[in-house]
Write a structure and sequence with these properties.
The protein has 141 residues and is mainly α. Helices cover 79% and strands 0% of the residues. It is built from four helices and no strands. The chain is elongated. 16% of the residues are buried.
């Protein structure tokens, strides 16, 4: 069952983007922090949203593998791409000594949130499909 497809990919990216941005703004507001790199961070969040949605969307092709392994591989690929992007960025400019650690947190929290929502919806749809199949089997007996 494919939950993320070509028709709803942009919508899901927009939802991820909105939720992550609101979470960032709320946490900064509660901490009393003002971000002088606000616009840079917003575009980074957009990139995270696209990346996380893309990585979660390949679950459809990995359904024959155990769920936990798929989730861990998806997470490792996401973090790997982000760390590669940090490394490439570091070749052209100077970044904070804690950049990798900061980005690890910045990608882990949205990924886990997105994965939880995606897989809860996925298993709900599977349960619903199984109930429909069970009803059809009972009617045919």
């Amino acid at each position: 069952m494919k939950l993320i497809n070509k028709k709803n990919f942009v919508s899901i990216v927009c939802i991820f983007f909105t939720l992550i941005t609101c979470g960032k703004l709320l946490s900064e507001r509660l901490a009393g922090f003002t971000d002088r790199y606000y616009s840079d961070n917003i575009f980074t969040i957009l990139g995270f949203s696209v990346l996380i949605t893309l990585v979660l969307s390949v679950h459809y092709y990995l359904q024959k593998f155990p769920f936990l392994i798929v989730l861990l591989v998806q997470y490792a690929v996401t973090v790997g791409i982000v760390f590669l992007a940090i490394w490439i960025h570091g070749q052209f400019s100077v970044h904070a000594p804690t950049a990798y650690w900061d980005m690890f947190y910045s990608i882990t929290i949205p990924f886990l949130g997105g994965a939880i929502v995606y897989y809860v919806c996925f298993f709900y749809q599977i349960r619903k499909a199984n109930a429909i199949l069970r009803n059809l089997q009972e009617e045919s007996d």
